[in-house]
Structures are given as structure tokens and as C-alpha cells.
Design a protein that fits this description.
Elements: E1 3-9, H1 13-27, E2 30-36, H2 38-46, E3 53-57, H3 58-66, E4 76-88, H4 99-108, E5 111-115, H5 121-133, H6 136-139, E6 143-146, H7 149-158, E7 164-169, H8 170-174, E8 179-184, E9 192-199, H9 206-217, H10 222-227, E10 230-231
Parallel strand pairs: 1-2, 1-3, 5-6, 5-7
Antiparallel strand pairs: 3-9, 4-7, 4-8, 4-9, 4-10
Helix pairs in contact: 1-9
């Protein structure tokens, strides 16, 4: 089946999946591509991986625009995504209101599921947060690091650890069966990231890519975006 190709942060995977049938009905095209750590997705575009559309952090899309990999006339913000905590569906929720609460919750966990701590938005933030809390070395053996948040959350859902916890972007938590959104990170440790879409300058399906961006950002779909973890 002919499809448009996408390179996207994992934060947008659930929302894109909700719109795939509508895109096909309007354009006759499906969606193929990759969802993963935003830094890796940007590098794939730079390296020549075919793409019609990118959905990455606003900062990365702006940089790719300046590098002439993204059409500047096509760029639109999709929404803000918080980095948050997750637990398995049958486990008690973990509520953290202060940095001390967050430190205690992470120290109490026997497995901490996170995305790539060098290339993903949430993973980089987790690494910085552990340093800021002064527990990076203490919990290092508990970290379970995966290429992206979606994979990390699936592994959390399947975990047989006694007290596991996950930390990634809220959209990836919401989109994963078997886990639940446990709560936001506390003041001083929070992260809210704007995700932005744009058409690649080498796009083969420009019109369809623009249709997908319209679907992603349509005011009539604001409730869908909210349910999938986007705000703003």
C-alpha cells in the first residue's frame, strides 16, 4: 500500500495512530515510518532516510528548518506534552508533590523504566533529574533503559518487578495498555515539551503530509489531542 513516511518522536505515536484511518479516507495513503527518540529521528532525516513529515520537538524542527531539511511554510505546533510517572495498571498510584517525594518514590522502586537517556526528550530529562536529586549512582542498577518511551512502557507493563515505576512522556503512557498515568513531576523537576510538525523538503507526498498536519492540529480535534496527552 502506498503510504506517507513519517519520522516522529514517540510522543506523537498514539495521536497519529488515531488519525491514520481518516488520512487514508481523505488521501488514499497509509502511514509508515518510525517513532523514537527525537534526536535519532532528526539524525535519520539528515542522513537521508526518506520522510514526508516530521513530528519532533519545536527546537529540533526549527533547527532542521534552518538546515533546510524542513519546509518553513509547513511548520505547525501540535501541542505540549508533559513528562510524567507511570505504574502498572494494578499497582497503587505514586503521587509526588515535591522533589523529596520524587526522590523517595524513585529510591523505593526496584526497577525504573525509561527511554534513551542520551537521545530522547524524556530520557535526557530523567538523567538530569536523577543528578539533581543526588541519587543517580544509587539507582543506576535499577534503571531499565530502552530505545524509546513506548518500548519502555510496554516493558513496564510486562515487568515482574515488585515495585516498578516508569518515567516518560504522558502521551506514551496513555497509549500503552497495562499501565496508567500516575502523575506529573513536581515543581522544579517538571518538563513540558512543545511538539511541532513539518513537511520534509524532500517529501514525495507533500499534499498528503500537509493533510496529516491539518488533522493533527485541527481545532475540532482538540479533545482528541487532550485525551492522547497533548495540551496547549
Amino acid at each position: 500500500m502506498t503510504a506517507i513516511h513519517i519520522l516522529s518522536g514517540g510522543a506523537a505515536q498514539g495521536l497519529v495512530a488515531q488519525l491514520a484511518e481518516t488520512l487514508k479516507a481523505q488521501t488514499g495513503l497509509g502511514i509508515e515510518g518510525e517513532f523514537g527518540a527525537v534526536g535519532l529521528m532528526a539524525d535519520k532525516l539528515r542522513g537521508g532516510t526518506p520522510a514526508d513529515i516530521v513530528i519532533l520537538t519545536r527546537a529540533l524542527v526549527t533547527k532542521l528548518r534552518d538546515e533546510e531539511f524542513v519546509d518553513p511554510t509547513s511548520i505547525v505546533d501540535v501541542g505540549v506534552v508533559e513528562t510524567a510517572l507511570a505504574v502498572r495498571a494494578n499497582d497503587p498510584k505514586v503521587t509526588v508533590k515535591t522533589g523529596s517525594d520524587l526522590r523517595d518514590a524513585l529510591r523505593a522502586a526496584d526497577a525504573i523504566f525509561v527511554p534513551d537517556i542520551k537521545a530522547s526528550t524524556a530520557g535526557i530529562h530523567v538523567a538530569k533529574t536523577l543528578d539533581r536529586l543526588g541519587i543517580a549512582d544509587e539507582v543506576a542498577s535499577c534503571l531499565r533503559i530502552f530505545p524509546n518511551g513506548a518500548t519502555a512502557m510496554r516493558q513496564l507493563a510486562a515487568s515482574d518487578a515488585k515495585r516498578p515505576i516508569g518515567c516518560t512522556q504522558a502521551t506514551e503512557i496513555i497509549a500503552t495498555e497495562g499501565i496508567v498515568l500516575s502523575g506529573s513531576l513536581p515543581p522544579g523537576h517538571e518538563l513540558a515539551t512543545m511538539y511541532t510538525a513539518g513537511v520534509a523538503t524532500r517529501a514525495a507526498h507533500v499534499t498528503a503530509a500537509r493533510v496529516l498536519i491539518e488533522l493533527l492540529t485541527d481545532a475540532d480535534r482538540s479533545e482528541l489531542r487532550r485525551r492522547m496527552g497533548f495540551s496547549g
